[in-house]
Amino acid sequence: MSTNDRDQIIITSDPLNVQRALDHITIPSCGGISIFCGTTRDTFQDKTVLYLEYEAYEAMAIKEIVRICDDLAASFDLRKIYVAHRTGRVDVCETSIIVAASSPHRSDAITFVSKAVDKIKERAPVWKKEWYEDGSVWKENCKCTGPV
Q1: pTM greater than 0.85
Q2: Which of 48, 55, 116, 133 has the most other CB atoms within 10 Å of its CB?
Q3: pLDDT per residue over 86-97, tens digit each?
């Protein structure tokens, strides 16, 4: 975990809690709050998904997510940021990632969250294995190509 006055970044095998994100980012000076929750869906390309399994190089994932948040936050008027990513088994309808931010106005929070999700999926050393009825397959991030 990485925490400072603005950010809370978490990698955990425990179920994620959106209320924890909301509690971190809600402050009196902010009227704009944006929260993205990525959940396991039950199908992918006409295959039934049973569950996902995530692995992470935790120390590097936290450092990279902090770097992503710092880089993006320089372009937005944000007050609080929360990112949590799950590892281990994540069943259908369970949350695998939460990215949340607060800002005095909605536009900065919404745009930051959208861009942060994309960058985390692209750059953080977190890998996803999809389990189907007929087997499993590792999914690649753009720059992180397999579990360490």
Answers
A1: yes
A2: 116
A3: 999 999 999 999
